[in-house]
Specification:
Length: 294
């Protein structure tokens, strides 16, 4: 039995974690508690007059057809963004892993888009798909495809999903490449000697061994799609047309900052926080069961 390790200084461990605890308390728990408290109030835009209304704001939110539409839009947007960004990143990582000459250059070029701010990424895609001057939009028109994200809700959703996924592909690519490098090459070579084709080797050996990385990215991409894509939607569509791209986080901003419905906006933020916590818990509770750590 190994001897028990005792830290000689009893105060130093608390001092080392104190900065992180202070940051968490100031920038997460305190704003979260204020949002919960404000969600029970009905107040004017300037905060001069407030009334405690218990759960009336939550009842108003959950009975609002616009909020239910935002919930549906968020589900479609989040699933699409996470799937596209992870699938494309995995494909690119597998292809880049096969490159022998100039491998570092290819990987560096793939990581660069992650440095682009979300709003800038949205504007880049907006220019590319602009119905009047966008090069990709002109190419679609030449193929007989009508494209107008300013008036068509489906086109607008495709545009914001493409921009959000493109922004996140670099992040996913980096982790998938690291996961591929950790896989023993001897396993793949042995399967190739046994006659397993490249596709079968990927689905039976490579992809199962990437399960921990894939699960981690699934959680990260879910949170990214719910929160960090606000800048893209705000810059590209503003929630339109006809609220077809108004996600939950954008509706919190719209009702709070634009319509000055402080209590309603706070209630929406609390509901969104509960949704994220619940999704993360479900992922760790049920999805992680199928993840094998080697």
């Amino acid at each position: 039995m190994s001897p028990r390790v005792v830290f000689p200084n009893k105060v130093l461990p608390y001092l080392l974690v104190a900065p992180q605890l202070a940051i968490t308390l100031i920038f997460f728990y305190w704003p979260a508690s204020q949002a919960v408290y404000q969600s029970t109030l009905r107040e004017d835009p300037f905060g001069l007059n407030s009334k405690f209304v218990w759960f009336d704001n939550f009842k108003r939110v959950l009975s609002d057809p616009g909020y239910l539409n935002s919930l549906q839009v968020t589900a479609v947007f989040s699933v699409s963004t996470a799937f596209v960004s992870m699938a494309v990143a995995l494909l690119l990582a597998v292809m880049a892993d096969k490159v022998i000459k100039g491998r570092g250059l290819y990987r560096t070029l793939m990581i660069w888009p992650y440095a682009v701010a979300p709003a800038i990424a949205g504007m880049l895609w907006l220019f590319l798909f602009s119905p009047s001057i966008g090069s990709l939009a002109i190419g679609l028109r030449s193929l007989g495809i009508r494209w107008d994200p300013l008036l068509n809700g489906t086109d607008a959703m495709i545009l914001v999903v493409s921009a959000a996924a493109w922004k996140q592909i670099s992040y996913n690519f980096l982790f998938f490449v690291a996961g591929l490098q950790a896989i023993p090459k001897a396993l793949i070579e042995a399967a190739a000697i046994d006659g397993a084709r490249e596709t079968k080797r990927f689905w039976t050996i490579i992809f199962p061994l990437l399960a921990p990385t894939t699960f981690f990215l699934l959680v990260v991409n879910t949170v990214y799609a719910l929160f960090d894509t606000f800048g893209i939607i705000h810059a590209v569509t503003g929630g339109g047309p006809g609220r077809s791209t108004e996600t939950l986080v954008y509706k919190v901003y719209s009702d709070g900052a634009l319509n000055q419905l402080m209590g309603v906006s706070a209630a929406q933020s609390v509901i969104l926080m509960v949704i994220v916590i619940a999704l993360t818990a479900v992922q760790f509770r049920y999805v992680e069961r199928k993840v094998h750590y080697g």
